[in-house]
Protein backbone atom coordinates (compact mmCIF):
# COMPACT_ATOMS: atom_id res chain seq x y z
CA UNK A 1 0.00 0.00 0.00
CA UNK A 2 1.11 3.53 -0.62
CA UNK A 3 2.13 5.84 2.15
CA UNK A 4 0.46 9.17 2.47
CA UNK A 5 1.71 12.08 0.48
CA UNK A 6 0.83 15.70 0.87
CA UNK A 7 -2.49 17.28 -0.02
CA UNK A 8 -1.25 17.68 -3.55
CA UNK A 9 0.58 14.39 -4.11
CA UNK A 10 -0.48 10.86 -4.77
CA UNK A 11 -3.79 11.26 -6.57
CA UNK A 12 -2.30 10.12 -9.84
CA UNK A 13 -1.26 6.77 -8.29
CA UNK A 14 -4.67 5.90 -6.89
CA UNK A 15 -5.70 2.25 -7.19
CA UNK A 16 -9.14 1.13 -6.02
CA UNK A 17 -9.17 -0.92 -2.83
CA UNK A 18 -10.78 -4.00 -4.34
CA UNK A 19 -8.03 -4.31 -6.94
CA UNK A 20 -5.10 -4.14 -4.50
CA UNK A 21 -4.54 -7.83 -4.05
CA UNK A 22 -6.28 -10.93 -2.88
CA UNK A 23 -5.16 -10.54 0.71
CA UNK A 24 -6.71 -7.08 0.97
CA UNK A 25 -9.92 -7.94 -0.80
CA UNK A 26 -12.97 -8.11 1.46
CA UNK A 27 -15.66 -10.57 0.47
CA UNK A 28 -18.39 -8.44 -1.07
CA UNK A 29 -21.80 -8.78 0.58
CA UNK A 30 -24.88 -8.84 -1.69
CA UNK A 31 -26.70 -5.54 -2.06
CA UNK A 32 -30.21 -7.03 -2.19
CA UNK A 33 -31.97 -6.89 1.19
CA UNK A 34 -28.75 -5.72 2.85
CA UNK A 35 -28.68 -3.47 5.89
CA UNK A 36 -26.54 -0.82 4.17
CA UNK A 37 -28.98 -0.47 1.28
CA UNK A 38 -31.87 -0.57 3.73
CA UNK A 39 -30.25 2.40 5.45
CA UNK A 40 -29.91 4.12 2.07
CA UNK A 41 -33.63 3.71 1.37
CA UNK A 42 -34.79 4.83 4.82
CA UNK A 43 -32.41 7.79 4.86
CA UNK A 44 -33.72 8.67 1.40
CA UNK A 45 -37.23 8.74 2.90
CA UNK A 46 -35.83 11.00 5.63
CA UNK A 47 -34.42 13.47 3.11
CA UNK A 48 -37.72 13.29 1.25
CA UNK A 49 -39.35 14.58 4.44
CA UNK A 50 -36.61 17.18 4.97
CA UNK A 51 -37.03 18.73 1.54
CA UNK A 52 -40.80 18.44 1.52
CA UNK A 53 -40.89 20.53 4.69
CA UNK A 54 -38.34 22.93 3.26
CA UNK A 55 -39.91 23.71 -0.12
CA UNK A 56 -43.65 23.45 0.49
CA UNK A 57 -43.72 27.08 1.62
CA UNK A 58 -42.42 28.13 -1.81
CA UNK A 59 -45.67 26.93 -3.42
CA UNK A 60 -47.94 27.79 -0.52
CA UNK A 61 -46.56 31.36 -0.58
CA UNK A 62 -48.21 31.90 -3.97
CA UNK A 63 -51.59 31.09 -2.40
CA UNK A 64 -50.93 32.89 0.90
CA UNK A 65 -50.71 36.29 -0.76
CA UNK A 66 -53.58 38.72 -1.25
CA UNK A 67 -53.67 38.67 -5.07
CA UNK A 68 -55.91 41.72 -5.25
CA UNK A 69 -53.36 43.71 -3.30
CA UNK A 70 -50.48 42.34 -5.38
CA UNK A 71 -52.19 43.19 -8.65
CA UNK A 72 -52.93 46.72 -7.55
CA UNK A 73 -49.32 47.38 -6.54
CA UNK A 74 -47.63 45.66 -9.47
CA UNK A 75 -50.23 46.67 -12.09
CA UNK A 76 -50.12 43.18 -13.63
CA UNK A 77 -50.47 39.67 -12.32
CA UNK A 78 -47.68 38.33 -14.56
CA UNK A 79 -45.22 39.53 -17.23
CA UNK A 80 -46.34 36.98 -19.82
CA UNK A 81 -49.99 36.33 -20.76
CA UNK A 82 -51.58 34.25 -18.02
CA UNK A 83 -52.51 30.65 -18.79
CA UNK A 84 -56.04 29.38 -18.49
CA UNK A 85 -56.82 29.11 -14.81
CA UNK A 86 -59.38 26.39 -13.97
CA UNK A 87 -62.23 27.26 -11.64
CA UNK A 88 -61.25 26.45 -8.08
CA UNK A 89 -63.60 24.64 -5.67
CA UNK A 90 -65.58 27.13 -3.63
CA UNK A 91 -64.84 25.52 -0.28
CA UNK A 92 -61.14 26.36 -0.37
CA UNK A 93 -61.40 30.05 0.44
CA UNK A 94 -61.30 29.62 4.22
CA UNK A 95 -57.57 30.22 4.79
CA UNK A 96 -56.23 33.68 5.50
CA UNK A 97 -54.27 35.68 2.93
CA UNK A 98 -51.66 38.34 3.64
CA UNK A 99 -50.45 41.64 2.20
CA UNK A 100 -46.73 40.87 2.13
CA UNK A 101 -44.58 42.84 -0.31
CA UNK A 102 -41.73 41.25 -2.29
CA UNK A 103 -39.14 42.20 0.33
CA UNK A 104 -41.11 40.53 3.13
CA UNK A 105 -41.58 37.45 0.95
CA UNK A 106 -37.82 37.27 0.44
CA UNK A 107 -37.17 37.37 4.18
CA UNK A 108 -39.78 34.71 4.87
CA UNK A 109 -38.41 32.38 2.21
CA UNK A 110 -34.81 32.91 3.35
CA UNK A 111 -35.42 32.79 7.11
CA UNK A 112 -35.20 28.99 7.24
CA UNK A 113 -31.51 29.18 6.43
CA UNK A 114 -30.70 31.49 9.33
CA UNK A 115 -31.54 28.61 11.64
CA UNK A 116 -30.09 26.00 9.30
CA UNK A 117 -26.61 27.54 9.36
CA UNK A 118 -26.45 27.56 13.16
CA UNK A 119 -26.41 23.78 13.62
CA UNK A 120 -24.14 22.64 10.77
CA UNK A 121 -20.80 22.41 12.56
CA UNK A 122 -22.35 21.50 15.97
CA UNK A 123 -24.33 18.79 14.15
CA UNK A 124 -21.20 17.27 12.67
CA UNK A 125 -19.39 17.37 16.02
CA UNK A 126 -22.29 15.90 18.02
CA UNK A 127 -22.84 13.14 15.45
CA UNK A 128 -19.19 12.06 15.56
CA UNK A 129 -19.11 12.23 19.36
CA UNK A 130 -22.47 10.75 20.39
CA UNK A 131 -23.78 8.98 17.30
CA UNK A 132 -25.86 10.21 14.36
CA UNK A 133 -29.10 8.20 14.68
CA UNK A 134 -30.91 10.15 17.38
CA UNK A 135 -29.40 13.48 16.42
CA UNK A 136 -30.82 13.18 12.91
CA UNK A 137 -34.10 11.69 14.12
CA UNK A 138 -34.88 14.38 16.69
CA UNK A 139 -33.67 17.11 14.35
CA UNK A 140 -36.25 16.16 11.74
CA UNK A 141 -38.92 15.58 14.40
CA UNK A 142 -38.43 19.14 15.65
CA UNK A 143 -38.83 20.46 12.11
CA UNK A 144 -42.03 18.42 11.71
CA UNK A 145 -43.53 19.93 14.87
CA UNK A 146 -42.80 23.52 13.81
CA UNK A 147 -44.14 22.80 10.33
CA UNK A 148 -47.47 21.82 11.87
CA UNK A 149 -47.46 25.19 13.68
CA UNK A 150 -46.82 27.22 10.50
CA UNK A 151 -50.48 28.24 9.83
CA UNK A 152 -50.81 29.55 13.39
CA UNK A 153 -47.58 31.52 13.08
CA UNK A 154 -48.64 33.05 9.75
CA UNK A 155 -51.90 34.29 11.28
CA UNK A 156 -49.96 35.91 14.10
CA UNK A 157 -47.82 37.84 11.62
CA UNK A 158 -44.81 37.69 9.32
CA UNK A 159 -42.39 38.03 12.25
CA UNK A 160 -43.82 34.91 13.93
CA UNK A 161 -43.67 32.99 10.66
CA UNK A 162 -40.02 33.98 10.20
CA UNK A 163 -39.28 32.80 13.76
CA UNK A 164 -40.93 29.42 13.14
CA UNK A 165 -38.99 28.97 9.90
CA UNK A 166 -35.74 29.77 11.73
CA UNK A 167 -36.58 27.05 14.30
CA UNK A 168 -37.32 24.60 11.47
CA UNK A 169 -33.90 25.38 10.04
CA UNK A 170 -32.22 24.70 13.39
CA UNK A 171 -33.77 21.22 13.39
CA UNK A 172 -32.86 20.43 9.81
CA UNK A 173 -29.35 21.80 10.14
CA UNK A 174 -28.06 18.61 11.77
CA UNK A 175 -29.44 16.24 9.13
CA UNK A 176 -26.72 16.25 6.46
CA UNK A 177 -23.74 16.31 8.88
CA UNK A 178 -25.32 13.49 10.91
CA UNK A 179 -25.98 11.40 7.81
CA UNK A 180 -22.43 11.87 6.56
CA UNK A 181 -21.15 10.69 9.95
CA UNK A 182 -23.37 7.62 9.64
CA UNK A 183 -22.18 6.84 6.12
CA UNK A 184 -18.58 7.05 7.33
CA UNK A 185 -19.31 3.86 9.29
CA UNK A 186 -21.64 2.22 6.76
CA UNK A 187 -20.44 2.92 3.19
CA UNK A 188 -17.66 0.73 1.70
CA UNK A 189 -15.32 2.99 -0.30
CA UNK A 190 -16.22 1.65 -3.73
CA UNK A 191 -19.96 1.83 -3.04
CA UNK A 192 -20.01 5.42 -1.78
CA UNK A 193 -21.34 7.01 -4.94
CA UNK A 194 -24.13 4.43 -5.23
CA UNK A 195 -25.19 4.50 -1.59
CA UNK A 196 -25.02 8.26 -1.14
CA UNK A 197 -26.87 9.07 -4.35
CA UNK A 198 -29.64 6.66 -3.33
CA UNK A 199 -29.71 8.29 0.09
CA UNK A 200 -29.76 11.87 -1.15
CA UNK A 201 -32.11 11.29 -4.06
CA UNK A 202 -34.77 11.62 -1.38
CA UNK A 203 -34.03 15.35 -1.30
CA UNK A 204 -34.82 15.61 -5.01
CA UNK A 205 -37.88 13.36 -4.72
CA UNK A 206 -39.12 15.47 -1.82
CA UNK A 207 -38.93 18.49 -4.08
CA UNK A 208 -40.40 16.65 -7.08
CA UNK A 209 -43.40 15.36 -5.16
CA UNK A 210 -44.01 18.18 -2.70
CA UNK A 211 -44.08 20.96 -5.31
CA UNK A 212 -46.96 19.54 -7.43
CA UNK A 213 -48.71 18.00 -4.45
CA UNK A 214 -48.58 21.32 -2.62
CA UNK A 215 -50.12 22.97 -5.66
CA UNK A 216 -52.94 20.41 -5.77
CA UNK A 217 -53.56 20.74 -2.02
CA UNK A 218 -53.75 24.53 -2.36
CA UNK A 219 -56.11 24.16 -5.33
CA UNK A 220 -58.57 21.68 -3.84
CA UNK A 221 -58.30 22.53 -0.13
CA UNK A 222 -56.26 25.51 1.06
CA UNK A 223 -52.63 26.33 1.81
CA UNK A 224 -52.80 25.33 5.51
CA UNK A 225 -53.23 21.65 4.59
CA UNK A 226 -49.85 21.71 2.83
CA UNK A 227 -48.17 21.88 6.22
CA UNK A 228 -50.50 19.40 7.91
CA UNK A 229 -50.10 16.70 5.25
CA UNK A 230 -46.32 16.82 5.04
CA UNK A 231 -46.02 17.13 8.81
CA UNK A 232 -47.97 13.87 9.20
CA UNK A 233 -45.65 12.12 6.73
CA UNK A 234 -42.70 13.27 8.82
CA UNK A 235 -44.16 11.66 11.94
CA UNK A 236 -44.46 8.32 10.10
CA UNK A 237 -40.81 8.51 9.05
CA UNK A 238 -39.67 9.17 12.63
CA UNK A 239 -41.34 5.99 13.87
CA UNK A 240 -39.64 3.89 11.16
CA UNK A 241 -36.25 5.53 11.80
CA UNK A 242 -36.52 4.86 15.54
CA UNK A 243 -36.98 1.09 15.20
CA UNK A 244 -35.05 0.21 12.02
CA UNK A 245 -31.82 2.26 12.04
CA UNK A 246 -28.59 1.84 14.03
CA UNK A 247 -25.42 3.93 14.26
CA UNK A 248 -22.99 1.35 12.86
CA UNK A 249 -22.78 -2.23 11.53
CA UNK A 250 -21.41 -3.37 14.89
CA UNK A 251 -24.52 -2.15 16.75
CA UNK A 252 -27.08 -3.47 14.25
CA UNK A 253 -28.78 -6.59 15.68
CA UNK A 254 -30.05 -7.97 12.36
CA UNK A 255 -27.13 -7.42 9.97
CA UNK A 256 -25.56 -10.55 8.48
CA UNK A 257 -22.05 -11.43 9.63
CA UNK A 258 -20.84 -11.40 6.03
CA UNK A 259 -22.06 -7.85 5.46
CA UNK A 260 -20.70 -6.64 8.77
CA UNK A 261 -17.24 -8.01 7.98
CA UNK A 262 -17.37 -6.63 4.44
CA UNK A 263 -18.12 -3.11 5.64
CA UNK A 264 -15.73 -3.01 8.59
CA UNK A 265 -12.80 -4.62 6.74
CA UNK A 266 -13.17 -2.30 3.74
CA UNK A 267 -13.01 0.72 6.07
CA UNK A 268 -10.31 -0.49 8.46
CA UNK A 269 -7.51 1.60 6.93
CA UNK A 270 -9.62 4.73 6.50
CA UNK A 271 -11.11 5.41 9.91
CA UNK A 272 -9.15 7.12 12.66
CA UNK A 273 -8.44 4.98 15.71
CA UNK A 274 -8.96 8.08 17.85
CA UNK A 275 -12.07 9.75 16.50
CA UNK A 276 -12.56 11.51 19.83
CA UNK A 277 -9.55 13.66 18.97
CA UNK A 278 -10.46 16.13 16.25
CA UNK A 279 -7.52 17.77 14.42
CA UNK A 280 -9.19 21.16 14.04
CA UNK A 281 -6.02 22.94 12.93
CA UNK A 282 -5.33 20.50 10.12
CA UNK A 283 -8.98 20.50 9.07
CA UNK A 284 -9.37 24.27 8.72
CA UNK A 285 -6.08 24.59 6.84
CA UNK A 286 -6.76 21.76 4.39
CA UNK A 287 -6.85 23.00 0.79
CA UNK A 288 -8.95 20.05 -0.45
CA UNK A 289 -11.57 20.94 2.16
CA UNK A 290 -11.67 24.60 1.11
CA UNK A 291 -12.01 23.51 -2.50
CA UNK A 292 -15.19 21.65 -1.47
CA UNK A 293 -16.35 24.71 0.49
CA UNK A 294 -16.11 26.98 -2.55
CA UNK A 295 -17.76 24.43 -4.86
CA UNK A 296 -20.56 23.74 -2.37
CA UNK A 297 -21.24 27.45 -1.83
CA UNK A 298 -21.28 28.13 -5.56
CA UNK A 299 -23.54 25.22 -6.48
CA UNK A 300 -26.00 26.05 -3.71
CA UNK A 301 -26.37 29.63 -4.89
CA UNK A 302 -28.02 28.38 -8.06
CA UNK A 303 -29.80 25.52 -6.30
CA UNK A 304 -31.38 27.66 -3.57
CA UNK A 305 -32.27 30.46 -5.96
CA UNK A 306 -34.37 28.02 -7.95
CA UNK A 307 -35.59 26.08 -4.92
CA UNK A 308 -37.13 29.11 -3.22
CA UNK A 309 -38.06 31.31 -6.17
CA UNK A 310 -38.95 29.00 -9.06
CA UNK A 311 -42.67 28.91 -8.14
CA UNK A 312 -42.60 32.72 -7.91
CA UNK A 313 -40.98 32.94 -11.36
CA UNK A 314 -43.54 30.53 -12.79
CA UNK A 315 -46.37 32.64 -11.38
CA UNK A 316 -45.12 36.24 -11.72
CA UNK A 317 -43.31 35.96 -15.06
CA UNK A 318 -44.65 32.96 -16.95
CA UNK A 319 -48.20 33.31 -15.63
CA UNK A 320 -48.91 29.73 -14.53
CA UNK A 321 -51.72 29.08 -12.05
CA UNK A 322 -51.14 27.56 -8.61
CA UNK A 323 -52.14 24.12 -9.91
CA UNK A 324 -49.91 24.27 -12.99
CA UNK A 325 -47.13 25.94 -11.01
CA UNK A 326 -46.43 23.01 -8.71
CA UNK A 327 -46.22 20.44 -11.49
CA UNK A 328 -43.99 22.55 -13.73
CA UNK A 329 -41.74 23.64 -10.86
CA UNK A 330 -41.12 19.97 -10.03
CA UNK A 331 -39.84 19.01 -13.50
CA UNK A 332 -36.29 20.35 -12.97
CA UNK A 333 -35.92 18.33 -9.77
CA UNK A 334 -37.35 15.20 -11.34
CA UNK A 335 -34.60 15.39 -13.95
CA UNK A 336 -32.01 16.06 -11.24
CA UNK A 337 -33.10 12.99 -9.26
CA UNK A 338 -32.82 10.67 -12.26
CA UNK A 339 -29.44 12.04 -13.31
CA UNK A 340 -28.08 11.91 -9.74
CA UNK A 341 -28.78 8.18 -9.40
CA UNK A 342 -27.36 7.47 -12.84
CA UNK A 343 -24.24 9.49 -12.11
CA UNK A 344 -23.68 7.55 -8.89
CA UNK A 345 -23.72 4.26 -10.75
CA UNK A 346 -21.42 5.62 -13.46
CA UNK A 347 -18.95 7.18 -11.01
CA UNK A 348 -18.43 3.95 -9.07
CA UNK A 349 -18.19 1.98 -12.33
CA UNK A 350 -15.43 4.29 -13.54
CA UNK A 351 -13.56 3.94 -10.24
CA UNK A 352 -14.00 0.22 -9.65
CA UNK A 353 -14.06 -1.30 -13.14
CA UNK A 354 -12.25 1.24 -15.31
CA UNK A 355 -9.76 2.08 -12.51
CA UNK A 356 -10.06 5.85 -12.98
CA UNK A 357 -8.56 7.78 -10.03
CA UNK A 358 -11.17 9.10 -7.61
CA UNK A 359 -9.88 12.67 -7.97
CA UNK A 360 -10.44 12.61 -11.74
CA UNK A 361 -13.96 11.26 -11.41
CA UNK A 362 -14.93 13.80 -8.74
CA UNK A 363 -13.55 16.74 -10.76
CA UNK A 364 -15.11 15.64 -14.07
CA UNK A 365 -18.52 15.15 -12.50
CA UNK A 366 -18.26 18.49 -10.69
CA UNK A 367 -17.39 20.35 -13.90
CA UNK A 368 -20.35 18.90 -15.78
CA UNK A 369 -22.64 19.39 -12.78
CA UNK A 370 -21.75 23.07 -12.36
CA UNK A 371 -20.92 24.49 -15.78
CA UNK A 372 -23.88 22.80 -17.48
CA UNK A 373 -26.48 24.32 -15.13
CA UNK A 374 -24.86 27.76 -15.46
CA UNK A 375 -25.13 27.75 -19.25
CA UNK A 376 -28.78 26.72 -19.37
CA UNK A 377 -29.79 29.01 -16.49
CA UNK A 378 -28.51 32.02 -18.42
CA UNK A 379 -30.37 30.75 -21.49
CA UNK A 380 -33.65 30.75 -19.52
CA UNK A 381 -33.46 34.53 -19.24
CA UNK A 382 -33.56 34.86 -23.03
CA UNK A 383 -36.55 32.63 -23.71
CA UNK A 384 -38.98 35.50 -23.15
CA UNK A 385 -42.53 34.17 -22.96
CA UNK A 386 -41.72 30.94 -24.77
CA UNK A 387 -43.09 28.79 -21.96
CA UNK A 388 -41.98 25.47 -23.41
CA UNK A 389 -38.40 26.58 -23.95
CA UNK A 390 -38.18 28.22 -20.51
CA UNK A 391 -39.35 25.10 -18.69
CA UNK A 392 -37.12 22.90 -20.88
CA UNK A 393 -34.00 24.94 -20.13
CA UNK A 394 -34.80 25.07 -16.41
CA UNK A 395 -35.23 21.29 -16.41
CA UNK A 396 -31.95 20.70 -18.27
CA UNK A 397 -30.13 23.09 -15.93
CA UNK A 398 -31.26 21.31 -12.77
CA UNK A 399 -30.83 17.86 -14.32
CA UNK A 400 -27.19 18.49 -15.14
CA UNK A 401 -26.73 19.70 -11.58
CA UNK A 402 -27.51 16.15 -10.48
CA UNK A 403 -24.15 15.03 -11.90
CA UNK A 404 -22.37 16.91 -9.10
CA UNK A 405 -23.94 14.49 -6.59
CA UNK A 406 -21.02 12.19 -7.44
CA UNK A 407 -18.54 15.06 -7.59
CA UNK A 408 -17.58 17.50 -4.84
CA UNK A 409 -20.79 16.67 -2.98
CA UNK A 410 -19.46 13.41 -1.52
CA UNK A 411 -15.76 14.24 -1.61
CA UNK A 412 -15.77 14.69 2.19
CA UNK A 413 -15.85 10.90 2.55
CA UNK A 414 -12.88 10.53 0.20
CA UNK A 415 -10.55 12.87 2.04
CA UNK A 416 -11.54 12.25 5.70
CA UNK A 417 -14.19 9.58 6.33
CA UNK A 418 -13.70 9.65 10.12
CA UNK A 419 -14.55 13.35 10.18
CA UNK A 420 -16.98 13.43 7.27
CA UNK A 421 -19.82 14.78 9.42
CA UNK A 422 -17.68 17.62 10.71
CA UNK A 423 -16.37 18.41 7.23
CA UNK A 424 -19.91 18.43 5.85
CA UNK A 425 -20.92 20.72 8.70
CA UNK A 426 -18.16 23.15 7.75
CA UNK A 427 -18.89 23.13 4.00
CA UNK A 428 -22.65 23.23 4.50
CA UNK A 429 -22.28 26.21 6.84
CA UNK A 430 -20.80 28.24 4.00
CA UNK A 431 -23.16 26.60 1.49
CA UNK A 432 -26.17 27.74 3.53
CA UNK A 433 -25.29 31.41 3.08
CA UNK A 434 -26.77 31.43 -0.47
CA UNK A 435 -30.07 30.23 0.97
CA UNK A 436 -30.02 33.09 3.47
CA UNK A 437 -29.13 35.95 1.16
CA UNK A 438 -30.01 34.58 -2.29
CA UNK A 439 -33.82 34.94 -2.02
CA UNK A 440 -33.49 38.39 -0.42
CA UNK A 441 -31.13 39.63 -3.14
CA UNK A 442 -33.17 38.03 -5.91
CA UNK A 443 -36.45 39.55 -4.71
CA UNK A 444 -34.75 42.94 -4.26
CA UNK A 445 -33.50 42.73 -7.86
CA UNK A 446 -36.92 41.68 -9.19
CA UNK A 447 -39.20 44.17 -7.49
CA UNK A 448 -40.90 44.94 -10.83
CA UNK A 449 -40.82 41.31 -12.04
CA UNK A 450 -39.46 42.18 -15.47
CA UNK A 451 -37.63 39.63 -17.60
CA UNK A 452 -34.54 41.87 -17.58
CA UNK A 453 -34.47 41.80 -13.77
CA UNK A 454 -34.65 38.01 -13.74
CA UNK A 455 -31.84 37.85 -16.31
CA UNK A 456 -29.62 39.61 -13.76
CA UNK A 457 -30.54 37.01 -11.12
CA UNK A 458 -29.66 34.17 -13.50
CA UNK A 459 -26.35 35.79 -14.56
CA UNK A 460 -25.23 36.17 -10.94
CA UNK A 461 -26.02 32.53 -10.17
CA UNK A 462 -24.22 31.29 -13.30
CA UNK A 463 -21.09 33.36 -12.64
CA UNK A 464 -20.81 32.05 -9.07
CA UNK A 465 -21.25 28.47 -10.35
CA UNK A 466 -18.43 28.87 -12.86
CA UNK A 467 -16.10 30.27 -10.19
CA UNK A 468 -16.76 27.31 -7.90
CA UNK A 469 -16.12 24.79 -10.67
CA UNK A 470 -12.75 26.40 -11.45
CA UNK A 471 -11.57 26.45 -7.82
CA UNK A 472 -12.54 22.82 -7.20
CA UNK A 473 -10.81 21.68 -10.40
CA UNK A 474 -7.55 23.27 -9.28
CA UNK A 475 -7.52 22.33 -5.58
CA UNK A 476 -9.79 19.25 -5.21
CA UNK A 477 -8.24 15.92 -4.10
CA UNK A 478 -9.43 12.30 -3.93
CA UNK A 479 -7.29 10.54 -1.29
CA UNK A 480 -7.61 10.31 2.48
CA UNK A 481 -5.60 13.19 3.94
CA UNK A 482 -2.71 12.56 6.38
CA UNK A 483 -4.47 14.23 9.30
CA UNK A 484 -7.60 12.09 8.88
CA UNK A 485 -6.21 8.79 10.27
CA UNK A 486 -3.77 7.62 12.93
CA UNK A 487 -2.41 4.88 10.67
CA UNK A 488 0.20 5.72 8.05
CA UNK A 489 -1.72 3.86 5.37
CA UNK A 490 -4.55 4.72 3.03
CA UNK A 491 -6.67 2.62 0.70
CA UNK A 492 -5.51 4.94 -2.07
CA UNK A 493 -8.72 5.25 -4.04
Q: Give the number of helices.
A: 19
Total beta strands: 0
Q: Which class do the helix and strand fractions yield?
A: mainly alpha
Shape annotation: globular
| Strand coverage percent | under 5%
Taking pLDDT < 50 over at least 5 consecutive residues as the criterion, the unreliable ranges are 1-23, 70-76, 487-493
Distance between the termini: 11 Å
User: Approximately how much helix is present in the residues?
Assistant: 55-70%
Q: Work out the radius of gyration.
A: 23 Å
Q: What's the mean pLDDT score?
A: 84
The SSE order reads HHHHHHHHHHHHHHHHHHH
Q: Largest sheet, if any?
A: none
Please sum up the structure shown.
This protein is mostly helical and 493 residues long. It has 19 helices and no strands.
Topology:
Blueprint: H1 35-64, H2 67-74, H3 102-116, H4 120-130, H5 132-148, H6 150-156, H7 158-172, H8 175-186, H9 192-220, H10 224-244, H11 257-267, H12 280-284, H13 287-316, H14 322-352, H15 358-380, H16 387-401, H17 411-415, H18 420-445, H19 451-475
Would you mind describing this structure in some detail?
- The protein has 493 residues and is mostly helical.
- The chain is 68% helix and 0% strand.
- It is built from 19 helices and no strands.
- Helix 5 packs antiparallel against helix 7 and helix 5 (132-148) runs antiparallel to helix 8 (175-186).
- The longest helix has 31 residues, at 322-352.
- It is globular.
- 57% of the residues are buried.
- The model is unreliable at 1-23, 70-76 and 487-493 (pLDDT under 50).
Amino acid sequence: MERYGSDTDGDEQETPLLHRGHEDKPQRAPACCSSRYGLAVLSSFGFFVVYSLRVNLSVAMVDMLNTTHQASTNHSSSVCPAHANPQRPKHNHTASVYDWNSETQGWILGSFFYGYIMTQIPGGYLASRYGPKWLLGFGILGTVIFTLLTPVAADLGATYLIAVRVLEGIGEGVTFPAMYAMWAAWAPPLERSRLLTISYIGAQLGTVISLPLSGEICFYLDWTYVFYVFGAVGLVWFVLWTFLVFDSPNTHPRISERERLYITSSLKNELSSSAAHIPWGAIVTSRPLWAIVVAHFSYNWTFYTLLTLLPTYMNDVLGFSIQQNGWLSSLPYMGCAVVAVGSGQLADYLRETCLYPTVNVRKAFSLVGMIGPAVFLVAVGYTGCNYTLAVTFLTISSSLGGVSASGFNINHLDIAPSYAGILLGITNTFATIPGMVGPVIARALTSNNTIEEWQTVFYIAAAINLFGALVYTVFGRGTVQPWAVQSTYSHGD
